[in-house]
């Protein structure tokens, strides 16, 4: 297992924050990150959080939990499949106390039982397990989900609540004094939190609502929160209010009877995690540190100092390759692998750009905050919020198509960005769109890859788990990358009635972790498939449509990165641009023997600090706003 290697951004994290956790006294805050570290911040002065200690894992860290009995003990949960238990002194000295035995999959969340000796760990393998932290021994399995178990919360009386992508909410008692209870929802549940009294369990729903449940999982109240999924929830210490982080990019304050108190929108905030202690709300960020707010007024108290620039999207724009980043900057670099690279910056926003599309002289960007931006070189136009993040964009038949986390195609006027129509396209987030003549391909978390126009679409194939990306090679071949650890490739056929079909579909085996991005090189009759994984590897397969067994046996690790790979794009000269979250950019082509070869290697950090890149190109642009 490779160890994350990311460039530093100031004194904080080098990548977005996945989790925030206050120590009960509010004087320490632990932040977890995609950079593989946990930073413990001294929050004694709320307006000036100071990094006190840094703890490291080999892979991204999903969560942490402070011990309820010993304030110097912190547990951290990582995608390296371990849970580490640390001692962090008041002065910031750290000692690794124990590492719980290697789990079978990524650990998503941890929570202590009230005795401060036992720890619950929940994993992407669906299991909730109980461990003794004194000697690192496994004690029991306390729950099981049919899909990824996403979060665990332990109440003051020892009741354990777990939620998962299977829609199951389960309450159990490891000490056996309370009967277990379950409740099933139709869609994924990713967040939960017991109130401090233990009387209510808040459950963050994928449809944007929060349910307040009894310990027996009866519904006390349903609170509508957002147009997109509710992700995380945290209670005020007197249980009078709670704060919700949602995928509309906002933080939402409610009192216990469901009255909305405040809403905070900041494009830098990543609200997949929130925490509350002593009148302060902490939230995750796409920048290098946490956001702090006053619980009563929602007034900002502190914010991170520096942006991070992880690449999320690629598009070719004339003779340039454009890279959309977590900071909201678009980095434009010469796309010709043989030319001396020139660099310019386009400053579109201060939050993550998830998707890019280009049409002539016009650039479009989809953001995490749910807006679409249009930049024509002179004017920046910001569309009205679509109500959910926009991970995919495509231009089709004079219309801009935005694929959203809500599973919709939102059809926009390509000039004004005014909304024309909404179409329920998938039963899950539309992660990727790939234009083809006469239509476009789409990949989604409902496991399907589909083809057609905005309305009439046909399913080409289905994966065993969510699909992260889809790519086309002309109108003749396509490939998709999935969290089921596979890539699928197939030939495309368009029937006389305009319907798309796939034939000769093959499954390509490679990494042992989720496959994030995909592209095709060469000729559609015998293409080379490239795919990038969360295991930091770039893989290549030679596809033989007439011998699927030969394709199954093919595949090799082609290059390694310092973090997971994020996106790929086939350029007009036949090369493929590959980007990793470590900021590395590769241009890959085929050599004389038809094998993939690196033609150029670049790094975003170096491009950002070239003299020509010091002044963002959009700095003097005026901003328009769609009606």
UniProtKB/TrEMBL annotation:
Q: PROSITE patterns per the record? A: WD_REPEATS_2 (PS50082), WD_REPEATS_REGION (PS50294)
**WD repeat boundaries?**
10-42, 54-96, 100-141
Q: Which UniProt keywords apply?
A: Repeat, WD repeat
Any matching Pfam family = WD40
| PANTHER family tied to this protein | F-BOX AND WD REPEAT DOMAIN CONTAINING 7, WD40 REPEAT PROTEIN
Supply the name of the protein. WD40 repeat domain-containing protein
């Amino acid at each position: 297992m490779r160890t994350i290697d990311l460039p530093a951004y100031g004194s904080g994290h080098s990548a977005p924050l996945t989790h925030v956790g206050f120590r009960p006294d509010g004087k320490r805050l632990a932040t977890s990150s995609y950079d593989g570290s946990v930073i413990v911040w001294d929050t004694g002065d709320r307006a000036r959080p100071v990094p006190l200690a840094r703890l490291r894992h080999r892979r991204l860290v999903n969560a942490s939990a402070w011990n309820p009995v010993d304030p110097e003990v912190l547990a951290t949960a990582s995608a390296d499949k371990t849970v580490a238990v640390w001692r962090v002194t008041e002065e910031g000295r750290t000692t690794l106390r124990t590492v719980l035995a290697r789990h079978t999959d990524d650990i998503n969340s941890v929570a202590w039982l009230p005795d401060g000796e036992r720890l619950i760990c929940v994993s992407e393998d669906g299991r909730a397990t109980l461990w003794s932290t004194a000697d690192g021994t496994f004690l029991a399995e306390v729950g099981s989900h049919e899909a990824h178990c996403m979060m665990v919360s332990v109440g003051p009386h020892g009741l354990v609540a777990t939620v998962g992508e299977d829609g199951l909410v389960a309450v159990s008692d490891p000490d056996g004094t309370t009967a277990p209870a379950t409740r099933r929802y139709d869609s994924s549940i990713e967040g939960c939190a017991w109130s401090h009294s233990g009387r209510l369990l808040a459950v963050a729903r994928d449809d944007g609502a929060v349910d307040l449940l009894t310990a027996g999982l009866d519904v006390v109240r349903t609170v509508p929160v957002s147009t997109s999924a509710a992700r995380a929830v945290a209670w005020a210490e007197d249980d009078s209010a709670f704060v919700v982080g949602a995928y509309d990019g906002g933080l939402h304050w409610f009192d216990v009877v469901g009255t909305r108190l405040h809403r905070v929108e900041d494009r830098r905030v990543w609200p997949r995690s929130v925490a509350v202690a002593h009148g302060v709300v902490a939230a995750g960020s796409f920048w290098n540190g946490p956001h702090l707010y006053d619980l009563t007024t929602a007034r900002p108290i502190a914010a991170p100092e520096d942006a991070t620039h992880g690449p999320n999207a690629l598009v070719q724009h004339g003779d340039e390759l454009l890279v959309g980043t977590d900071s909201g900057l678009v980095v434009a670099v010469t796309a010709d692998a043989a030319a001396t690279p020139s660099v310019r910056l386009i400053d579109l926003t201060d939050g993550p750009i998830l998707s890019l599309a280009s049409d002539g002289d016009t650039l479009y960007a989809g953001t995490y905050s749910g807006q679409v931006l249009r930049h024509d070189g002179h004017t920046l136009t910001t569309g009205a919020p679509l109500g959910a993040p926009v991970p995919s964009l495509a231009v089709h038949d004079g219309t801009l198509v935005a694929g959203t986390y809500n599973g919709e195609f939102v059809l926009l006027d390509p000039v004004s960005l005014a909304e024309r129509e909404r179409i329920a396209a998938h039963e899950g987030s539309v992660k990727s769109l790939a234009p083809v003549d006469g239509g476009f391909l789409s990949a989604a978390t409902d496991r399907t890859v589909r083809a057609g126009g905005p309305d009439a679409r046909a399913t080409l194939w289905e994966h065993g788990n969510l699909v992260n990306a889809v790519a086309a090679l002309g109108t003749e071949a396509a490939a998709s990358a999935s969290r089921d650890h596979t890539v699928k490739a197939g030939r495309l056929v368009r029937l006389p009635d305009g319907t798309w079909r796939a034939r000769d579909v093959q499954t390509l085996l490679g990494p042992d972790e989720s496959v994030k991005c995909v592209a095709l090189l060469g000729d559609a009759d015998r293409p080379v498939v490239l795919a990038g994984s969360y295991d930091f590897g770039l893989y290549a397969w030679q596809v033989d449509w007439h011998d699927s067994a030969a394709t199954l046996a093919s595949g090799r690790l082609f290059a390694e990165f310092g973090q997971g790979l994020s996106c790929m794009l086939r350029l007009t000269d036949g090369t493929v641009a590959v980007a990793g979250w470590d900021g590395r950019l590769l241009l890959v082509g085929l050599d004389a023997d038809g094998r993939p070869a690196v033609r150029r290697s670049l790094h975003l950090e170096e491009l950002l600090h070239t003299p020509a890149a010091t002044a963002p190109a959009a700095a003097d642009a005026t901003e328009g706003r769609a009606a």
